[in-house]
Amino acid sequence: MATPMRAIALRPRSTAALVLVSVAGLLAFLWPLFATAGSRLGQHADAPLVFALLLPLLMAVVLFEISEGGLDVKAVAMLGVLSAVGAALRPLGAGTAGLETVFFLLVLGGRVFGPAFGFVLGSTTLFASALVTGGVGPWLPYQMLGAAWVGLGAGLLPRVPGRWELLLLAGYGAVAGLLYGVALNFSFWPFASGLASDLSFVAGAAPWENLRRFGLFSLATSVWWDVGRAVTNVVLIAVTGRAVLGTLRRASRRAAFDADVEFADVELADADEPATRHTLHG
Asked: Looking at residue 205, what is its pLDDT?
């Protein structure tokens, strides 16, 4: 089993900030299930845009807390390289029929460099690709947070024997691709016009009723795109996963992201053992 490497350390404050923005993000996505008929969210179509303004501010707080003492020059360089590669890959699929060519990189990057790096990589990659493709709009913060969760989840996956790792990552890529589509559907479903009455959002309806309507809406409008994204993730991880994981892990060793882990292992060993000291300095 490969030793996990952490390009960005998660400290208590940064962990708390990450949890805070994730909870706020869930509220930003799931508010249609809880909006009452008399609330501003239920009456005004532009009110949820407040979430689109709030999410970038919260994510900025998280990025600041993560970078405070936990993001060095080497991690910034690796983050820049992978974000640029992801921004270049995304237009190749452009979401056509669900062919999203960027998420596999978020999964593999989060797996190698850890959950904090995966979270930052997801948000910066989607932001960079939006600048490249001209896709900046009120939907972008939702896309950034959804992609950040994909990278975060990949970094939190358990360690498994090497022969099972690609299977684990491919399965996670499939599930993450489906859930990303569901989350993004929630962000615009209440404002979709021209829907059949059984598919539209009804402010004040019971959560289970709106959830049923949302399920029908997703099946009628986007299920094949979400399945296409999941299949694309599985195929790209299966085909490129071993090579990309090997390349990223070699880069991590050269950058000594895992130096603290190795040092801790050495401290537990016999301090007088020459071979151990040779391994540390070699």
From this structure: 84
**DSSP string computed for the chain:** -PPP--SS---HHHHHHHHHHHHHHHHHHHGGGT--TTSHHHH-TTTTHHHHHHHHHHHHHHHHHHHTTT--HHHHHHHHHHHHHHHHHHHHHTTGGG--SSHHHHHHHHHHH-HHHHHHHHHHHHHHHHHHHT--STTHHHHHHHHHHHHHHHHHSPP--HHHHHHHHHHHHHHHHHHHHHHHHHHHGGG--S--TTTS--TTS-HHHHHHHHHHHHHHHTHHHHHHHHHHHHHHHHHHHHHHHHHHHHHHHHHTTTHHHHHHHHHHS-TT-HHHHHHHH-
Interacting residues of 220 by C-beta distance below 8 A, sequence separation 6+? 199
* Confidence category of residue 33, pLDDT binned at 50, 70, 90: confident
- What is the DSSP code string of 232-262? HHHHHHHHHHHHHHHHHHHHHHHHTTTHHHH
Whether residue 44 has pLDDT greater than 60? no
CB 6 within 8 A of CB 113: yes
pTM: 0.81
Amino acid occupying residue 129 = S
Tokens of 142: 């939702």
Residue 147 is predicted with a pLDDT of: 93
Contact between 130 and 139 (Cβ < 8 Å): no
Contact 48, 31 (CB under 8 A): yes
What are the chain's domains? 12-281 (1.10.1760.20)
Amino acid symbol at 42:
G
Q: How many CB atoms lie within 10 A of CB 126?
A: 27
At 117, list the tokens. Answer: 């790096």
